[in-house]
Specification:
This protein is mostly helical and about 325 residues long. The protein has 13 helices and five strands. The protein has two domains: about 80 residues, Tyrosine recombinase, N-terminal domain (DNA polymerase, domain 1, Orthogonal Bundle), CATH 1.10.150.130; about 160 residues, Orthogonal Bundle (hpI Integrase, Chain A).
Length: about 325
């Protein structure tokens, strides 16, 4: 897959298949369960499924088994296994509720975090990073790819560009390129950051990354750590749900400690919460999809947290207003 998929996708596939490799190798390296795929059977896949299902949820199990079935289809194409083998992998189906990620930040939480950052860390990198992810619903790969030159404060736009040969890539490659508009306040915060707070540095490709350290473009991993920190309740003075003293808490202090906080919020959950916020505020789903580079099916399945009652009321308001 290397060369065909992004490095992140390759790492993800490698991780998903690593559990099958682990199971094949068995507990004793001198006595592996499976040494040759020519001998694998449907019974083996059932044994693996039962072994893997311990301690994980149904969504993770489905993801692992789907990756395994895809791998077996590849093995069929190179005469590695019998053509009927992929059909013997029983991938569980998910109910709509199980295939839906409800771990999204709420608008109230985002507002509290932004209020703190605006007051105490105005135009800092963390302020700009969180504000852009919340207001644009952008993936971390998009934020990581931004250069100073991609920001047009006067027009209040951000140009999201796929540059795989220059150190940054978008999840959907060229199809992910777009121009994203921002509100006047966000444009002003970003402009102030660039003028007063951003480290004046270029990366290894001569580009001026928007998010950087003195060494060049900041990695996506470090950008993620910053999000984990600012969303940890104690960092923004929102109180600890576990009633721990931040001075004594093992989850506070360093970036790595904040990553382990059980109450922080994943960067992807901010994207999801932001998308739900726009949908709840009557922005057409097609417009939201174009803005965040996601299909209607993806929006409905993974991001739209509106209840059926909410959707019905919004449709009622729309049609009643249209009739008048």
């Amino acid at each position: 897959m290397e060369g065909e998929l992004s490095p992140n996708s390759v790492r993800q596939k490698r991780y998903q298949l690593s559990k099958f490799v682990e199971w094949c190798e068995g507990i004793n390296a001198d006595d592996p369960r499976i040494e040759n795929l020519n001998n694998i059977t449907g019974r083996d896949f059932t044994r693996f499924k039962n072994w893997r299902s311990e301690g994980i949820n149904k969504v993770t199990l489905r993801t692992n088994l789907s990756a395994l079935r895809s791998f077996m289809r590849f093995c069929v194409s190179v005469d590695g296994v019998d053509p009927v083998i992929p059909q013997k992998i029983n991938v569980p189906t998910l109910d709509t509720s199980e295939n839906h990620n409800s771990e999204h930040i709420s608008a109230d939480e985002a507002t509290e975090i932004l209020s703190y950052l605006n007051q105490f860390e105005y135009a800092s990198m963390d302020h700009v990073l969180f504000k852009l992810q919340w207001t644009t619903s952008m993936r971390m790969s998009g934020l990581h790819s931004l250069d100073v030159g991609d920001v047009d404060a006067a027009e209040r736009t951000l140009s999201v560009v796929h540059r795989p040969d220059q150190g940054s890539r978008l999840k959907n490659a060229d199809d992910g390129e777009r121009v994203v508009t921002v509100d006047a306040e966000t444009a002003r915060v970003v402009a102030d950051y660039i003028e007063h707070k951003r480290t004046p540095v270029e990366d290894d490709h001569g580009r001026r990354p928007l998010f950087c350290s003195r060494y060049g473009r900041m990695s996506k991993q470090n950008l993620n750590k910053r999000i984990y920190r600012v969303t940890s309740p104690c960092y923004t003075s929102r109180g600890c749900p576990s009633d721990k003293d931040p001075q004594q808490c093992e989850h506070a202090g360093s970036y790595d400690n904040y990553v382990t906080c059980p109450h922080n919020i994943r960067p992807h959950a901010i994207r999801g919460g932001s998308i739900t916020y726009w949908l709840r505020n009557d922005v057409p789903k097609q417009a939201v999809g174009d803005r965040v580079n996601a299909s209607m099916k993806t929006l409905s399945r993974h991001y739209d947290e509106r209840s059926e009652q909410e959707k019905a009321e919004q449709r009622r308001d729309f049609f009643e207003n249209d009739e008048t």
